Every structure is written in structure tokens, then in C-alpha cells.
Amino acid sequence: MTCMEKLRLNKLTYMNNKEFLTELSGKCQMSPEVAAGHVQTLIGVMENLWNSGDSVSLSGFGVLEVKKKNERVSVNPTTGIRMLVPPKLVLTYKPSSLLKEKLK
Predict the structure, then answer these.
(1) For 3-41, how does the pLDDT look when each residue is reduced to its tens digit (9 = 90+)?
(2) Cβ distance 86 to 72 under 8 Å?
(3) CATH 4.10.520.10 spans which residues of the chain?
(4) What pTM was estimated for this model as a whole?
(5) Order of strands, edge to edge, in the sheet holding 56-58?
(6) In the CATH hierarchy, which top-level class contains the domain 55-104?
(7) Do the beta carbons of residue 57 and residue 93 sit within 8 Å?
């Protein structure tokens, strides 16, 4: 069953890595091992860009970028104890308007 067929079932389903590589290799007419190598290369390039402070913009898909979240005070709802949450970097995603339109 392809990813698109799963989406048509109107169920919350997930595609694991093996299913994704099989789908990608079928579309690109290459072996799953070669597709896995290309995916790892793509992820490595994106990680290098994020580490240097750049964002990744994929036309028709969206923008992936690393943002800094400032430190903040949080309260444990059970105990009421306040604690300081340190600053951290988070990966954010903003879908393109074209992708939003396709998903409607």
C-alpha cells in the first residue's frame, strides 16, 4: 500500500523509514539502498546548514529553520514547584502556501 493510499483511508497512519525508502526508490527507479544513501546525504547537508545558522527552504514544501527559545520559568502543575527551563535550540517548520493549498 502506498503512502497516498494510506492517506485516502482518512485514518491517522504513519510511514516508517523502510516504507518511505521503498516508496522513494520506486518513484526514482533506484534501489532502496541507494535511496537511503541519498536521504542520508540530504539530511547531512541540512544539518550542516542549520549548524551554521542558515534555514532550509524547499520550494513547494516549506521552510525548516533552527530557532532559539529563551530560558523561562515553568510551574509543575502537580506540585506547584517553579523551575527554570534553560534556553534551547528547536527545529521549526513553516509549510509553504502551495502545500497548504494542496492539503485542503
Answers:
(1) 555 555 556 677 888 988 998 998 999 999 999 999 999
(2) no
(3) 55-104
(4) 0.70
(5) 56-58, 62-69, 88-95
(6) few secondary structures
(7) no
